[in-house]
Amino acid sequence: MIEIGCGRGEYISILQQLDTNAYGLEHLKDSVAAGIGSGLKILEGFVENSVYNIPHAPFDGFLLLNFLEHLPDPNMALRGIYRNLTEDGVGLVEVPNFDMIVRKRLFSEFTTDHLLYFTGRTLGRR
């Protein structure tokens, strides 16, 4: 299992408690160092293109938790992640729900570091 954009590895630590061979991929050096300092397997890197090689691949699954909306080219990043999965690999992607934000008037959810917003339709594969 790999978490893309894992930060300091909060979810990685939970996965390791479940006896999962869990890795994280993070681009911020300070977060990588903090995670490694906590005994987590965090790799420094960023899925920068569709042919990016993640060390220790292939993975049976990936997590992408509230990170996709920060990426300038999410399709390219997802292709790069897919390339590092086993044939039966699966993933879990979580993003802020634009429809809910508008419906519930949660305008504080609009932040400058979110490059994109997704609805069920725009996130789903159709």
Write the layout of secondary structure elements.
Elements: E1 2-4, H1 10-17, E2 23-26, H2 29-37, E3 42-44, E4 59-65, H3 74-82, E5 85-94, H4 98-103, H5 120-123
Parallel strand pairs: 1-2, 1-4, 2-3, 4-5
Task: List the defining traits of the structure above.
single chain; 126 residues; alpha/beta; Rossmann fold; five-stranded parallel sheet; 5 helices; 5 strands
Would you give an account of this structure?
The protein has one domain (2-94): Vaccinia Virus protein VP39 (Rossmann fold, 3-Layer(aba) Sandwich). It is built from 5 helices and 5 strands. It has helices at residues 10-17, 29-37, 74-82, 98-103, 120-123, and strands spanning 2-4, 23-26, 42-44, 59-65, 85-94. The chain is globular and about 40 Å long. The mean pLDDT is 91.
Q: Which shape, going by the Cα principal axes? A: globular
Question: Could you name the CATH topology?
Answer: Rossmann fold
Structural class: alpha/beta
Query: How many individual helices?
Result: 5
Order of helices and strands: EHEHEEHEHH
Tally of extended strands?
5
Helix content: 25-40%
Q: What is the CATH architecture annotation?
A: 3-Layer(aba) Sandwich
What portion of the residues fall into strands of 2 or more residues?
15-25%
Instruction: Report the major sheet.
Output: 5 strands, parallel
